Amino acid sequence: MLIASLLLAPTVMLAATQMERRLGPSAAGWVAALPLAFAVAAPAVALNSGPDVVSAMALSAAEHVPAQISLGR
């Protein structure tokens, strides 16, 4: 898990940088805003706290998406 976490952030930043160079800042923002960290955090939390905590965490993450979309425009 630690290796995945350490590789994820630089990879996303590299992708965002490349997207900005090719398509502009808006595209880079979309890449940087992808919820990739959650995909790494969920298994780590599941190993430490169990599936009930991960379920609550996933529900919480999903509930804020409509507000984030409406405020992002």
Kindly report the average pLDDT value: 82
Shape assignment: flat
Secondary structure class reads mainly alpha
Tell me the major beta sheet. none
Strand elements, count: 0
- Residues in helix, %: over 70%
Number of H- or I-type helical stretches: 5
Percent strand: under 5%
> What ranges have pLDDT less than 50 throughout 5 or more consecutive residues?
none
Radius of gyration using CA atoms only:
15 Å
Order of helices and strands: HHHHH
Distance between the termini: 34 Å
Structure, explained:
The protein is mainly alpha-helical and 73 residues long. Helices cover 88% and strands 0% of the residues. It has 5 helices and no strands. α1 runs antiparallel to α2, α1 (2-23) runs antiparallel to α3 (36-49) and α3 (36-49) runs antiparallel to α4 (51-63). The longest helix has 22 residues, at 2-23. The chain starts with a helix and ends with a helix. The relative contact order is 0.10. The model has no long low-confidence stretch (mean pLDDT 82).
Structure summary:
It is built from five helices and no strands.
Q: How would you describe this structure in keywords?
A:
73 residues, mainly alpha
What's the helix and strand layout?
Layout: H1 2-23, H2 25-32, H3 36-49, H4 51-63, H5 65-71
